[in-house]
């Protein structure tokens, strides 16, 4: 396509709002989302075909950015700029910002295009090609989840990864010794990306990925040791009642994607759903919980 056929919509925001801003852009139909976080404010760039709907789309984006403030998410300055761009300029440009990143004692997220050798015997690389529409697996919410997984996983256990996205948590679980993993996502494109990433990690070749709205398409008789979810807080509230039906006795629910202001109500709902929070993890303004089921 020529330069006039694509438009880059750039939003300047705070690091803590990046995930929410990126979700807004994906929801309104961006063909790709790029995050440039080596400066302040952070830039989140989305690419759209230049058509008659673009003006309305930009107005919708600005409206949703304003809504983030109501949830206590600081998305300032929240400026939105639009500029023409050639497709060839953005198809691979985003890869320049992603490099191998050590996340926990044992886990390192490695882009598929980068050669990497582990520095120690018990370091496990997670090879990711997140594609333009998904993050590289290094956002604070993902870091929290990887730390939580490393804390509770025991070899031979079973797990469901809800809202798998790029599949990073499913791969990490297999690297840490989980026996069986079922991954779900409501987005068919996410399922395709996750399946592609599983093929990059031979340890995860037996992970099953399915299209499902949370756990609605999962066999009602399936019981696992762990359910993990790195998703938006309002979706977590809908997920919690479903999780209790799929956890074995003393099973764990690991959950992230929770912003400061929402954390108290998630804590309350977990308690009312017979979970005890064994660890409350915080990174920046993001929260994650390791919650143990008390149901018999």
UniProtKB/TrEMBL annotation:
Pfam families: PrmA. Its main location: cytoplasm. It is an enzyme of class 2 (transferase). GO terms for cellular component: cytoplasm; ribosome. The gene is prmA. It comes from the Bacteria. It catalyses: L-lysyl-[protein] + 3 S-adenosyl-L-methionine = N(6),N(6),N(6)-trimethyl-L-lysyl-[protein] + 3 S-adenosyl-L-homocysteine + 3 H(+). Gene3D superfamilies: Vaccinia Virus protein VP39 (3.40.50.150). GO terms for biological process: methylation. It is found in: Cytoplasm. It comes from Leuconostoc pseudomesenteroides. This is Ribosomal protein L11 methyltransferase. One of its GO terms (molecular function) is protein-lysine N-methyltransferase activity. Keywords: Cytoplasm, Methyltransferase, Ribonucleoprotein, Ribosomal protein, S-adenosyl-L-methionine, Transferase. Methylates ribosomal protein L11. Coiled coil: none annotated. S-adenosyl-L-methionine binds at residues 142, 163, 185, 230. Belongs to the methyltransferase superfamily. PrmA family. Its EC number is 2.1.1.-.
